[in-house]
Amino acid sequence: MGEDRLRASDADREKIVEQLRQAMDDGRLSLHEYDDRIQQAYAAKTYGELTPLLSDLPVRQNPPKAASRIPPWVVIMWIPWVAVNALCLTIWVATGAGYFWPFWVAAPWGFALLIPTAIGLTVGSQTTSQR
What we know:
Blueprint: H1 10-25, H2 31-43, H3 47-50, H4 72-94, H5 103-130
């Protein structure tokens, strides 16, 4: 009960507004109810004023984020490499599949992409684990 008298932060208010938005998206609140509640959320000074805004809504469980999700910048960086090397392999096969010259396109470029990818993924995983 003592916690209801504690002052709420802006981050606390934003969490409540996000939960209200999810409830509206799920069809649990009308646009008018949502608008009324977010006005009350932004005007709230204490946890006691925020708690009633969610009291008639079910607790929503957020799905866990996939830990191995590939960042979009990695995909964007590697798509040209895959496309060009697929073209080179097609040309190599179409011209008789002799000496495997596509290696000289794939290997240096792939190695050049591998370095920033490894660094970016390592640094990115360290920053997310610190949050």
